[in-house]
Protein: Nuclear transport factor 2 family protein
Organism: Epilithonimonas ginsengisoli
Amino acid sequence: MKKTILFLSLLSSVYFYSQDFSGINKILEKIEEKGKKIKDASNYELKSKKFVLVEDFEDHAERHVLELNADGTLTLIELIDDKSSGQSFSNIFTGDYIRKKNAVSVNANFLEGKKIAMPLVYNLYIMNAGDIWYLKDINTNKRWIENNNLIKKKK
């Protein structure tokens, strides 16, 4: 009798767990469908484009300008404005980038012509919202907006 009850409880638990897994599979399918709706940026040309990231902190403000050149190299200009003293500092990094479909890997390993021990590395994803193209940092979710979108057009 005990074996029969144990066997029936085992069968019923497998039946109920299989229903839960089918529900999880349905949820995963919905997530994958939403992921497929992300716009393919394979035709978007990155060469000779500039992207800007602006960050404001309590004691300073930072502006980063990322210029992607046609030959696979890049220039990253970092401008730091000290709020207390009013002074500005700049760093110019150079390096290269690699693009694979919507993903861009940035490696800035030279600071003003001298190789640095720890290069700046960004993993970015090309995104589009309306007519605005931007790069989204995969690790920090910061957005590098294309420079053309920051310039106000006079009508």
Remarks:
- Residues 47 and 70 are 5 Å apart (CA to CA).
